Amino acid sequence: MKTASLKEIKTELASVHPARLAELCLKMVKYKKENKELLTYLLFDSYDEKAYIQSVISEMDEMFKEVNRSNSYHAKKGIRKILGIANKQVKYSGSKQTEVEILIHFCKKLRKSGIVMPLNSALGNIYVRQVQKIKKSLATLHEDLQFDYSEEVRLL
User: Fold this and answer.
1) Cα separation of 130 and 97, whole Å?
2) E strands of the chain, at which residues?
3) How far apart are the first and last CA of the chain?
4) How many Cβ atoms sit within 10 Å of the Cβ of residue 145?
5) Model pTM?
6) Could you tell me if 127 and 106 are in contact, meaning their C-beta atoms sit under 8 angstroms apart?
7) Tens digits of residue pLDDT in 121-146
């Protein structure tokens, strides 16, 4: 089966009856958890970005409490899981400001977690890559926002 292009899908969706469109959305959501999460964000969370950021941050805080610190392998695995979820939430939003806020919080929590992160270890590399990602996203924001976040990034 050949997959239709985005343009073809857009034109077809424009001609679909709203009841049929809702039916198609529900069918699509049924098959993949990520689709359901994205639709949940679009329907319930996209109108209040600050509340969405706070919910993601509180979820990350809970996950950081549950990280197994008994050895570096388990700690690294837990940190990667948290980062994967954070990146997925950032992708749903699509906002660079949301990305910056969530990743700054991630880096702060990682530093305060008590997990030893030598610069050449995998955890140290994760941290460094996230700081670089924050700086790259920060450069695309408005100058006022850049100024607001620059002090927090400098402290990282």
Assistant:
1) 15
2) none
3) 49
4) 14
5) 0.82
6) no
7) 888 888 889 888 888 888 888 877 77
